[in-house]
Structure formats: structure tokens, C-alpha cells
Task: structure prediction
Amino acid sequence: RYKSNNVYIVVMELTSNLRKFQRREFYRFSCALEMNSRQLEQEEVIAVEKKEAYLVPGLPLKRSVIVDISGGGLRFIANHQYEEGSLIYCNYILITQKGPKEYNLVGKVIESSKVDARQNTYEHRVQYVNMNANEREEIIRYIFEEERKNRHKETGR
Result:
């Protein structure tokens, strides 16, 4: 370690190969977005397993709130609980620069837990299933747009 032109410099030697440690594939964006959802019917589950797009129309949906979203999935709060491992239909709207865009996606419940502070409230983590690349890119673009807006608000530009 030494100082050169008023800058501290440290010389290091690698003792092993560099390794990348990254837990998540996608950035999570904190938000509060309305979502409607329901558990998939058995015939829909079979279609998803075959990678076919099939949803039974007109079935009742339950309301919830997305608290964070990413290109790989979402986390939401609801007053109903889904079983871990179950497949659910998720319906929500993102307001983008091009206008509102509705998403009708299938997700697998990775985790479902009771929220301690509130009675009859559950938090669910969901991973998208069979999502097409265009929709994933649109969601990632939405996240970047919203982050950019938030940064501009913080800096006052």
C-alpha cells in the first residue's frame, strides 16, 4: 500500500480464480400495483405443463397488491393464501410511456407466508411460468422507466 499523487494505491495478488456471486437474475422494483389472481384449474395446469396457452375465461378473481416486481416474478400481499407450488393466474396493468398494458400471466407460488403485523394477510412470492421474451422485456423496460422517474424526482431534474 502506498500513496501516489495524493491517491492511495493498494497492490493485491489473486490467490484463486475470480468467481461471480449473484443470487438474483433480475432486479426487484418496489411498487404498489393492483393485481387480480386466481388458482389455475386442473385443465389449465395440464396446458401449462405442455407449454400451451390456455386459460378458462370468466372465473372469479381475487384482489391483491403487488409490492415488488421483476423480470422473473413478483411479490404480492393478499387477504387469501395460495399453496406453495401451486400455479396461479395473475392479471395486472402497467402504465408505460406507450400507455397502459395489461398482463395475463401464469406464475408458480414459490413462497407463501402470513404477514405478522396484519390479520388475514399473506405475502406470496411468484415466479413467472412459460413467459414469452417480449413480455419479460416489456416488464424490465417498465422497471427501468420507473426507476429513471424516481431518480429524477430525487435529484430534482
Remarks:
- The CA atoms of residues 71 and 98 lie 19 Å apart.
- The helical segments are 42-49, 133-155.
- The chain has one domain: 29-155.
- Residues 29-155 form a domain with the Thrombin, subunit H fold (CATH 2.40.10.220).
